[in-house]
What we know:
By secondary structure, this protein is α+β, with helices and mostly antiparallel strands. The protein contains nine helices and eleven strands. It folds into two domains: 2-141; 236-383, Histidine kinase-like ATPase, C-terminal domain (Heat Shock Protein 90, 2-Layer Sandwich), CATH 3.30.565.10. The strands form three sheets. It has a five-stranded mixed β-sheet. It has a four-stranded antiparallel β-sheet with strand order 2-1-4-3.
Amino acid sequence: MIKPLFNWRTGLAIIAIAIVSGTIIYSQLLARKIAREERQKVEQWVEAGKLLVQDTSGLSDRLVASIIAANNSIPIIETDEKDVIMQHVNLDSSKVANDTGYVRRQLNQFKSQNELPITWIDPGDSTRINYYYYGHTSLLNQVRYYPLVQLLIVALFIIITITALTTSFRSVQNQVWAGMAKETAHQLGTPLSSLQGWVEMMKEMPGNEKIVEEMSKDVERLKLVSDRFGKIGSIPQLEPHDIIHQVETMMEYIRKRATGKVQFALKNNAISPMIVPVSPPLFDWVIENLLKNALDAIYGKGNITVTINDTGKQVTIDVSDTGKGIARQNITNVFKPGFTTKKRGWGLGLSLSKRIIDQYHKGQLFVKQSELGKGTTFRIVLNK
Length: 384
């Protein structure tokens, strides 16, 4: 299920890169072409203006006038050799009239846009030099900035598409997990009822007391498992419970199933009870999963410590072990369904645990820290 989504993302990224890259290259070619044509027009405008002054015969007046009149878009500022502004054309007349520094600011901007001005030297006096600085037309600016606009549009399209695909994928995934969980609970119901009946019958037979006691524990355990799976996919009812008691109970359950070489420790900075709204079957399941993962990580020898802290508005529960740790590249994957580094198991425990804490209890479950060869700490954050 994850691989097709990855292919969608890769395909969209390649298409977007191709579109934007092609547009940028083409628009830059157009921009350079327009810039060359603009400079040629300014050069023609300068020559036409000087010719209009120098040609006393009047033969070129009509041609020169047409060239000068044709420039109604390129802003030009003329200065002398001392950088004194002589004249300007195609600037905002209202700003020129109301802002005394407007023309000078435009001149500085034109200098930054075109480092080499157009130079005209008086044929009769070589010491008289005029410089012509010009700015970009709106067409050139549009061609240059169009790829950025297109890039934003394409990026927005990709973000919307990926968000929609991811949301749809997660929705389908959640429905699948919820459906599997409910079906598992349903399938357990029939043999569980039968087992309860057999246990009741064996209670009436003398000499089976010890067997009945152990079987009753197993039946109750199966009922708890069925109840947990039945609550996946539906919104559980949160009730105030003592978190410390819940954690102690699960630690005791795991301790009995561990070797004597595993040391368990519970630390807390609050006076019991610490009341927090939880769904006991589901919360216990999370603690059990974290403790079992810690037990697997230390390979039957080491320390497992649970630390409970009351921060005022929240309660944090840290489950730490002295095991093998998690590789950095795997930390972001440990909560994904199906991910596991174990030889056995389906890789659903942490995924379901995160769903229970994040979605059902509106809290957080994440890897607080992990170091290869030294251990891992998972943190649960619950709102009081």
